[in-house]
Amino acid sequence: xxxxxxxxxxxxxxxxxxxxxxxxxxxxxxxxxxxxxxxxxxxxxxxxxxxxxxxxxxxxxxxxxxxxxxxxxxxxxxxxxxxxxxxxxxxxxxxxxxxxxxxxxxxxxxxxxxxxxxxxxxxxxxxxxxxxxxxxxxxxxxxxxxxxxxxxxxxxxxxxxxxxxxxxxxxxxxxxxxxxxxxxxxxxxxxxxxxxxxxxxxxxxxxxxxxxxxxxxxxxxxxxxxxxxxxxxxxxxxxxxxxxxxxxxxxxxxxxxxxxxxxxxxxxxxxxxxxxxxxxxxxxxxxxxxxxxxxxxxxxxxxxxxxxxxxxxxxxxxxxxxxxxxxxxxxxxxxxxxxxxxxxxxxxxxxxxxxxxxxxxxxxxxxxxxxxxxxxx
Length: 377
Ligand code: NAD
Fold this sequence. Notes:
By secondary structure, this protein is of the alpha/beta class. The protein is about 40% helix and about 15% strand. α6 packs antiparallel against α7 (about 215-220), α10 (about 305-310) crosses α11 (about 315-340) and α11 crosses α12 (about 345-365). Nicotinamide-adenine-dinucleotide binds near residues 144, 181, 182 and 201.
């Protein structure tokens, strides 16, 4: 069999499309993974070092994330080869060319990712219409501004607390990362009565066992300062953050921050994964064996994609927050129940649930991966 099928397994991908337009220097790849539940949604990533393999892996993770979130959408991803810092006019031309060339590929809905943003999504809207992550003026819901992912993380944390008899009020929380995800998570948790004892950004970390004032931290960040400029706390080393005595530890910054070498330092009862892959699988297994609940990224941080889907379906910001709350609570509970019942790591339970949903959707199709019915995609 030709090498092009090297990624193929029982779930997909259903299409890999090479997109080339020499007049503007466009080289791109679209991977449409499994679309049994509905059209694929996934971001357009621009980077100099992207590859078909990376595109496939990202598309597959969107298949699993959308299924785990209980959304009737499949997984897809597009990558454009190019420097994301290139001249804006040139970038706009590449994105318009990509959209035009994929006009007929109805099973892919464009979304922003690294190297693209709402402006470029507006260009896609202008060319072909099939896109999420739009500016507000075009019906977009600004998910980072409203804190969609943080809202979901707060609800996921609340459900996980029920599994270890913790109360939100007075619980002690550490948040690593104080960007779109971290700061909104801290804010929503504090609103519910949790005490934020430490937060970190790329400059360093700040700690106060009596709690930090999230409003003041917001003000510091919006004036361009770091969380370490907060006056009423102790500046600590990034590394010290891991071992802080707390109830919930929320990584919301970088991948692989908890690994098998440092997982023993976690004193929390719960880890809720805000960033993507912030805990290695072996560390998740270790935490599970120690009785520490670890809610996997694609369950806890799905607020963003749920918000994007709400936008695509014409919903409002209020609808998005309501749907995120309902779905994230339901899915966190389902995963933790199944983990408990079967004695398996929560990530394995989440994968099992997602794959069961995908296979069920596939069983309704004449072709297993897709449907060609009008209106389906
Ligand atoms: P962001 O760029 O807005 O914020 C990242 C934050 O992490 C910043 O405050 C930065 O200073 C901090 N940081 C960087 N390195 C750090 C370090 N070594 N230690 C401590 N803090 C550090 O990004 P974001 O949108 O908040 O996303 C954070 C993570 O969550 C990423 O992994 C992203 O892929 C993932 N994610 C984001 C969303 C979303 O809706 N934005 C949804 C799902 C997953």
